[in-house]
Structure formats: structure tokens, C-alpha cells
Amino acid sequence: MYRTGASSSWGFKHSFIFYFLIFTCILSVSCSIHFRIKVNKLQEDIFNLRATCNNQNGVSSNTNEVLQGVDYSSFYFKNVDSRTIGVYSVIFTLIIPFLFYKNLANRSKNKTLSNGTKSNKGEALLKKRIAYRVDVFFSVYPYAKLLALLVATIILIVSGGLALYAVSDASSLAEAVWLSWTFVADSGNHADRVGTGPRIVSVSISCGGLLVFSMMLGLVSDAISEKVDTLRKGKSMVVETNHILILGWSDKLGSLLEQLALANKSNGGGVVVVLAGRGKEEMEIDIANLEFDFMGTSVICRSGSPLILADLKKSDAYAMRVVLSLTGVKEGLKGHVVVEIHDLDNEPLVKLVGGELTETVVAHDVIGRLMIQCALQPGLAQIWENILGFENSEFYIKRWPQLDGVHFEDVLISFPDAVPCGVKVAANGGKIKLNPDFDYVLQEGDEILVLAEDYNSYHPVPLPKVHKSSCPTLIDPPKYPKKILLCGWRRDIDDMIMVLETFVAPGSELWMFNEVPEKERERKLADGGLNAPGLRNIKLIHHQGNAVIKRHLETLPLETFDS
To answer: How far apart are CA 506 and CA 499, in angstroms?
Structure first.
């Protein structure tokens, strides 16, 4: 109770001193205005006396009466009244916010005292409420800072103009307001002011102008910095057409960009947009460090996730979610979508979500099969590289309406600069049919798969004349058993063994050398659908060890393996 009473007594004294100072300021201003009125009246009397003395010879007898009859004091009284209004307006403009705040604080204190709490708690709560309202105002309205600065500038100019009009010899209020604006805009304009009052007011306006322009420069600088940061982080929209969009970042991006650059070389370059969850600058640095020429192709990086929801842990589930997001675009999806998945079992699900525009690539399984074929045929890796890349010849699919109704055997000799390899059958849902029968007739909508130098480097020509002759009889070379060493373990190793089973001759051996225990291997192979005892051409030989340890490799007869 003692503390509360002491706090209330101190607050009362503090409020009393505050109001006393306000009253003193108003009284001093009123006294100065009163004395100024007296001075103006004395100056008017002196003016009349001087006029009377100067006009004694050339003025009639009633000149003095005329001079004294002119009510010049009324003009000055009117002028003084307007200046008085200006002074009081400035004072009340500056004092009213403080009075309003003190009134709210006193009400809050009285309310907290009536509730039996400490008095300083109400004032603290009031400050928090005001700070919260200001914070909400600046957060909700994007132009709140600019609006607040504009209002503060107008108040400064108007109040400064009123103060100048009250303490200086300005001819009108408008002239004083304009003079106040010049002080705000250029702080050096107040240097020629004369008199204590005008100088004090001019310095105050100039200091307020410095503060206003400092805040304005800060707002402009923040806006420019925010815009530059937005552009630097890659948050702006990409306005491009006929471009390729790559979603996500992986170690395959470098080779993918290289092949796209080679593919766009004949067109003078293209546009590739990369959207990944990394920083824009980081992606641009990694792309700039790639050691190949883009040949006119532009790579635009944007930072962000292709999903609205959080990224999923499993890659195939992530890819499926991306496809679902793409197909849900309001504008409609018209581009061709190629999706890389890791598990062959998830391929039907991705196609079900993506529809006809989606094509899946099971890169893991494809690489495993390519490894088997390259192991059996030395040099095949170079052929695959040439065919699948854009440096030499590559596959192209195109429709040629002039070939509708032509047998495929005639299509084979219709392209002197390309090698027809198959047909994309329109009646079968666009499935590719490799090496169809010679008597297959192309239907309307069918497209031809060829191996050519570029998409515009080949075209059909009229059928040439062919001299008929008997074809030589081709004898397949005999197959001999192979001895192959497979180091390491892959998820699709059962699929690789089945592919190898179809290529090798009976009696071949596959030595499996990895760190997986033999019993666990048999279980995993059985879970994958491989019947190891039912293999006809391959015999599985298990060895356990680490392929990077030399002494483990020395236990194997490396010199006896074919590949």
C-alpha cells in the first residue's frame, strides 16, 4: 500500500509539473503577443506623427484628422490576431498528442489501481497496446511507412509554417508555409533568418527536414535492397515460351545441360529453366563451373520447391507428387513430361497420375541392363554414348503424311540420310514398335523412328529402283560359355541376372563378389522373383568380400574372367 501511494504521489507531481510547463509556455507566448500589439500601436503613432510633420506645407488643415482617422491599428490587430491563431495552433498541435497519451495512461493506471494491481503495470500495458497497433498497421498495409512519412512531413511543414508566420514578418500564411517547405527540403535555406524567434523556429524545421529525408532515404534504400534481393534469390516469374523446365537438382544435371546445349545447337540455342530447392546464386555458380560450351543456350535458375507441401523423403513419391502438381495447373499442362523413377514397380502409379503426357524412365534398371550388355560386347558403351547423346546421330520421331499407306520395307529405303528403326503406332496408344514386319502398312497418325544427324537433316525421297536378287544366308556365330565377375550389390541385381541369362551360352558362370552374406543374397534374389536353381545358362558362384580391399581381390582368379 505504501509503494502504491508513493507511486501515485510521484505521478501526480509529475503530471502537475508537466501541465505547469504547458501553462507557462502558453502564458509567455500570450505575453509576447500582447507586447507586440503595444509595439505595433506605438509604431503606428510614430508613423502618423512623422507623416503630419512632413506634410505641413502641402496638406490642408484637416490632414492630421485624416491621418489619425485611418484605422491602421485595425489592420495590425487583424494581422496580429491571425498570427496569434497560428501560435496557438502550433502549441495545441504539439501538446494534444501528449495530453491524449497522458489521459489514456491515467485511465489505465486508475483501472489497474481499482483492480488492486500495480500502477506502473497499466502504463506498460498501454505502451504494449500502442506498439502492437503500430506493428499491425505497418505489417498489414504495405505502404504504411510511406504514408506515415508523408503525414509527418505535412504536419512538419504546416506547423512550421504557422510558427514562422507567428514569429516572423511573413506577409501571409501561405508564404510562411512555402518558406517552411524550403527549410524542410534544404536545411541551408534558414541561414539568412534574423531574430531569435525566427532562427529557433527555422533551425527546428530544418532539423525535422533532415530527419524526414533521412527516413525517406532509408525507405527507398530498403525497397531497392528488397527488390534486388528478390531478383538475386530467383523469386521472380520466368516469362519464356518453348523452353525446357527441369525440376530438382541432381548430379546428372551437368550432363543433361550439356546434351540439351548440343540439341539446341542447330537452332542457335534455347532456354532451359532449372527450379530446385537450392539458392539461385549457388546454382548459377555450379553451372558456371561446368567445363563445356553452352553454344547459345541460356540457363535460368529459380529457387523454390515444385511442391506446395513439404518435400517427401522417398524419391519416387516426390516425383509422383511433382507430376500431380504439374497436372493440377489451372492453365492446363500441354508440355511433354519425362519423369525419372527409381523403382520399376512405381511406374504404373506415375503414369496413372500423369496421364498420356507423362513418360517414365527407370534410370536405375536401364543402367543395370546397359552394364550387362556392355560387359558382353566390348565397345558397346561407346555406341550407346553416341546414340543417346546429341554429338553424333540420335533418335528422332516425326510424322510424314506422304508415307501413309506405304509398307515398312519401302520406308527403309525412303530416307537416304537416316536409318528407320521403328514406328510409333497411333492406333496402339502411341507405343513404339521397333523393327516391325516388312509388310506393316503405315496408317494415318503413325510416326517414324529414325536414327539421324539432326531433326532437320533428313526427309523422305521417292522410292529408288532396286534390283532384286537373292539374299545371302546369314549364319549366327556360335556362342561360347562366359565367365563374368560382378562386384558389388544392386537393388535390381535379379533383373540384371535375368538379362544376362538371355545373352550368354549354357555353362556360363557369374561370380558375385560383395559384402552381403550368402544366405541373405539368396533371400533377396528370391524376393525379387529370381529362381536361382532354375537358371539354364548361368551358374551363380558366391564370394563374400570387399572389392576395394586388395587382399580380398587376390583370393579371386581375376585372370580367368572374360569381363
So the answer is: 14
Edge-first strand listing for the sheet containing 244-247: 244-247, 271-276, 298-303
Average of per-residue pLDDT across 316-320: 72
CA distance 34 to 477: 127
What Rg value do the Cα atoms of the chain yield, rounded?
46
Spatial separation of the C-alpha atoms in residues 196 and 549, rounded to whole Å: 94
- Residues 103 and 555: their CA atoms lie apart, in Å, by 95
Q: Highest mean pLDDT range out of 61-65, 264-268, 508-512? A: 508-512
Residue 160 to residue 400: CA distance in whole angstroms = 83
- The CA-atom distances, in angstroms, between 92 and each of 53, 163, 207, 266 are 46, 12, 21, 78
Give the DSSP letter string of 416-430.
TTEEEEEEEEGGGTT
Residue with cell 520447391: 305
Per residue in 208-267, pLDDT (tens digit) is 888 888 888 888 887 787 777 766 666 667 777 788 888 888 888 888 888 888 888 878
Cα 33 to its chain centre, rounded Å, is 62
Q: Average pLDDT in the 497-514 region? A: 91
* Crossing angle of helices 363-376 and 493-503, rounded to 10°: 30
Name every residue whose Cβ is closer than 8 Å to that of residue 254 and which is 6 or more positions away in sequence: 290
C-alpha separations of 194 from 167, 169, 198, 278 in Å: 11, 10, 7, 64
Angstrom CA distances, 393 to 369, 387, 454, stand at 22, 6, 7
For residues 508 and 530, what is the distance between their CA atoms, to the nearest angstrom? 17
Q: And the C-alpha cell for 408?
A: 515398312
Here the cell at position 190 is 534558414
DSSP state for residue 265 in the 8-state scheme: G
Is-contact 358 323, C-beta < 8 A? Answer: yes
Contact 512, 486 (CB under 8 A): yes
Cell 536401364 found at: 366
User: What pairing do the DSSP bridges indicate for beta strands 271-276 and 298-303?
Assistant: parallel
Q: How many residues does the chain have?
A: 563
Phi-psi region of 304 (alpha: psi -120 to 50; beta: other; left: phi over 0): left
